[in-house]
Design brief:
The chain is an alpha+beta fold. Helices cover about 15% and strands about 30% of the residues. The strands form two sheets. It has a four-stranded antiparallel beta sheet, with no helix packed on it. It has a three-stranded antiparallel beta sheet with strand order 3-4-5, with no helix packed on it. The longest helix has 16 residues. The chain is flat.
Amino acid sequence: MLQTVFSPLSTSDPFADMRRMQTAMNRLFNGSRTPGQSVTYPPVNFWAGEDSIVMTTELPGLTEKDIELTVKDTMLSIRSTYPEPENGEDIIWHRRERVDGTFLRSVDLPFRVNPDKIDARFENGVLMVEMQRPEHDKPKRIAIKTT
């Protein structure tokens, strides 16, 4: 895989080669995807404010009753099962990319959340979870006095 990333070493700028190597290594280790690379399932999006964090994920073909959502400390977990497609005796798969079976996705949150103030909605195959930060866990601004 790395062979396709690098061109032969250039004699004019050795640092350009090092930057290309660093970019390739970052791509390998930081989770960014290239076409055809597998991802952790289901992929999730997170965004945070000062008081809450929101997570969205796509779970097509499931209902809210199929999804088990739990939170403990700073760990959010999503568990469910996709049924296996019905296979007839004469079916020969040409391509099979959709997942089936049980999955568990656990994600470490950037801060603790109040388990009593979690709003989870499931609409059109998209799960959206908004989690509020407990009051006692929010950063407090400290007044600085002059002498």
